[in-house]
Amino acid sequence: MAGQDLYEILRQSFTQMRKDAIQEDFVLSDDDIHFVPFFRSPFKLPATIITIMPKGRIEGMYDLKPIEVEGPCMVFMFPDQIVEHHTIRDDTETKLIIMSNRFAETMKMSQSYSAFFRFQQNPVLKLTGEELQMVTHFYQLLQDVVRMDHNGERSEVIKYLFLALFYAITNFRDFNLQELGKKSRGEEVFEKFYRELLQHHRESREVQYYADKLCMAPKYMARIIKEVSGKSATQWINEYVILEAKTLLKTRPDITLEDVSDELGFPNQSFFGKFFKQHTGFTPKEFRCRA
Length: 291
Hints:
alpha+beta; four-stranded antiparallel beta sheet; six-stranded antiparallel beta sheet; 2 domains; Jelly Rolls; 12 helices; Arc Repressor Mutant, subunit A; disordered N terminus
């Protein structure tokens, strides 16, 4: 898939799926996952994808780490994370909820940061039979609303239905959810930092750079990020750059190490190689041979 636009791949996939959609901002599909082409190779997600899996088993990679998923469960995948499916058991059934970044941002789900980080680190949520029944009922309600072409308020109804589903899901387990309502100052700072990181990680790996973007003192910003996320700003920066490097090395066999270094904003290939080995234990060449 090297060289292809990810959104175009997603659009091509949509045309082959049995789906219900509000344009391309909110898509529901209960099509056979075996026929969804963008799951078959390493794919950097341009959207939020929530999978309800009543039964079956899928093995693959999630952010370049092995993962095994067995139903009944739900799987949460967020933009810029990398998904790859290796094997899908024949009896696997899935229902997909796909949201564009634009649509997801209007949902204001980020009050539940503890749930967000839980799903980012461990995207699979096992379901009991009762929980699966409730989630399936919500999915059917969403589907009914999407199919109401005469309803001009479909998007608003979908948002409230989905938020109800999300908060019901997070109460299945103890995620230590913060009280719903306006985001705290710390959460707002982290959200802005993370958005800047996604956009500018090729330009700088310095905490000072992102603090300047947020018009904050570096130490103050770093303390807030550590308190909110449990990881330092430096950890977030380094981990994201390494993930980007691994993605390029794994999914683009035609790209040279020098090109990877240039694309990620390193001054030279040697500097990139030392940075990569420091954080992974392998040189870029060794990682590519192992991948």
